[in-house]
Amino acid sequence: MRTAGRAAAALAALAPAAVSAAPATGSGLDEAINNAFKPVADGVSWLVFHPVPIGFGASMPFVVLWLLIAALAFTLYFRFVNLRGFAQGFRLIRGDFSRRDDPGEVTHFQALATALSGTVGLGNIAGVAIAIGIGGPGATFWMIVAGLLGMSSKFAECTLGVKYRRINADGTVSGGPMYYLSRGIAEQRPSLAGLGKVLAVVFAICCIGGSLGAGNMFQSNQSFQLMLQVSGGADSWLAGKGWLFGVVMAILVAVVIIGGLKSIARVTGKLVPIMALLYFTCGLYIIVADIGNIGPAFRAIFDGAFTPEAGYGGFIGVLIQGFRRAAFSNEAGVGSAAIAHSASRTNEPASEGLVALWEPFIDTVVICTMTALVIVITGMYQVDGVGDGVQLTSMAYASVLSWFPYLLVVSVLLFAFSTMLAWSYYGEKAACYLFGESRPVALAYKLLFCVFVVIGASANLGVVMDFSDAMILVMSVPNLIGVYLLAPVVRREVEHYLARVRSGEIRNYRRAPAAA
After folding, report:
1. Where would you find the membrane-spanning parts of this chain (predicted)?
2. Where are the domains of the chain?
3. Are 154 and 81 in contact (CB under 8 A)?
4. What is the share, in percent, of the chain residues with pLDDT greater than 70?
């Protein structure tokens, strides 16, 4: 590990470049809106974060336990598809089994990139640091475990997304939990058709709320606060001009989303690999530069996972921190990604489920683990005064790469932008499900989304954004009820698909090109 003196010196030298998310000064209107939302926000938060006793005097937020139990159940029920389907998923992403005439709007890779753009972001940068700051290095181990289990949840919901999607007359696709909750449950369990429709409506309403808040306002708000801080804070020329920043961001978002999913997929297909590779490369450089400490870092992670200090409640406390961070990071079980994956060009529902396996793997197992390793190797989490969240991650990277805080600013802006693109599509599809699949409905939602970009950057709507963030997690309740009911369909789909791949019935076009 790096010495405390070296880390402290880096902290002292780089403190001005640290990044935080200080809220903007509120106005009377902000306060009025927040007060109006507070009773509703408190109710939703109570449901999502209500502590559930799990023994040994410990408790876990309801939503974390809900997502974790589903991930474990699906891993067992689908016979560890997260492991045995992993290689086939990579071949599909690479395009080995793709046909241009298959129904759908985007390639497997573009669907994956769009879904990843909605999950890879501040959670990978700040959330991991918070987990380590509270639970110690051992939280990293349980974060990885939860990420691996979450791959099974993501597989199931994305398989169902393709299975019950709707191909519209113009060739566009409408899919996701709204459709497999209503159409799938009605088909497989007719007696529960009414329940399926109710679950679909609840999911769609929460999806719209989450897209306008956490997927939009929160992103523009935090991006503006970051720009304000690095440009001089209260003395910056940007001070008081959140609306201007919001207008610029809204225009950039509009240029992409007006073109629909294909336009979004083209942009995210370029942005996501660049963002992930840049962040990963910086982390890998730090690890290689301090390769002698990689062994002690892994020992700290492993020992902390099973023999943590009793100060925080021991083993259970560390486990909860790891699972909580993974659940909030990759959104496995929430159902949002199924909306993007539903548009993939394929005739095989299980094929897109196998592609989706890579989403929690890249988000949690790769990117979150990279962040955790850098924090542990540099020893910055042990230095007093660093802070937590994005500031701790920034300082850990900056202790080796002095210019990293500035790169982090660019990364956060790109992460926020790509997240808004993905969630604009999720919200649009939810709105079209509720109000009808038509161009006027889609256009009205896109315009509304752009207006909320400006509102988010110029207002201090803390309670509103907390409420919308909770709504995203509430999406997991109707979604996972539906996935449980439709799990036999998923199992039949994947076993039939893998059997035909093994027999050669499903052609690998890279190995055996079709005859002219």
Report:
1. 54-78, 109-133, 139-156, 198-218, 238-259, 271-288, 300-320, 361-383, 403-423, 443-464, 470-490
2. 16-502
3. no
4. 84
Q: Is the dihedral of CA 384, 385, 386, 391 positive or negative?
A: positive
Return the higher-pLDDT residue of 158 and 225: 158
Per-position DSSP letters for 275-332, written without gaps between them? HHHHHHHHHHHHHHHTGGGHHHHHHHHHHHHHS--GGGTHHHHHHHHHHHHHHHHH-T
The CATH architecture to which 16-502 belongs is: Up-down Bundle (1.20)
The whole-angstrom separation of Cα 508 and Cα 487 is 27
Three-state secondary structure of 435-462: HCCCHHHHHHHHHHHHHHHHHHHHCCCH
Question: Which residue has better confidence, 7 or 444?
Answer: 444
From CA 200, how far away is CA 207, in angstroms rounded? 10
Task: Look up residue 297 and give its two tokens.
Answer: 């870092």
pLDDT-based confidence at 29, cuts 50/70/90?
Answer: low
For residue 234, the 8-state DSSP code is G
Residues 255 and 417: their CA atoms lie apart, in Å, by: 12
At residue 52, the 3 state secondary structure works out as: strand
| 86-94 vs 108-117: helix crossing angle, rounded to 10 | 110
Give 321-365 pLDDT, tens digit per residue: 667 666 667 788 899 999 999 989 998 999 999 999 999 898 888
Kindly provide the residue ranges of all beta strands, DSSP E only, lying in 56-156, ordered along the sequence. Answer: 58-61
SS3 category, 118: coil
The DSSP element (H or E) to which 51 belongs, if any, is strand 51-55
Contacts within 8 Å (CB) and 24+ apart, 234-237: none
Calculate mean pLDDT across residues 159-188: 91
How far apart, in whole angstroms, are the C-alpha atoms of residue 299 and residue 321? 18
Distance CA 160, CA 352 (A): 9
pLDDT of 300 reads 87
Classify residue 355 by burial, with Cβ atoms within 10 Å: 0-12, 13-18, 19+: buried
247-269: per-residue pLDDT in tens? Answer: 998 998 998 888 777 778 788 77
pTM for the whole thing? 0.84
Q: What is the mean pLDDT of residues 265-279?
A: 79
* Distance, CA of 451 to CA of 435 (rounded, Å): 20
176 token code pair: 């996701």
What is the DSSP annotation of 459-482?
---HHHHHHHHHHHHHTHHHHHHH
pLDDT of amino acid 513: 52
Q: In this structure, is the dihedral angle defined by the CA atoms of residues 303, 305, 307 and 309, taken in order, positive or negative? A: positive
Residue indicated by tokens 């890998």: 284
Cβ neighbors of 273 (< 8 A, separation 6 or more) are 113
Give the pairing of strands 51-55 and 166-167: unpaired
Say whether 61 sits in a helix, a strand or coil. strand
SS3 106: strand
| φ/ψ (deg, to 5) at 470 | -65, -35
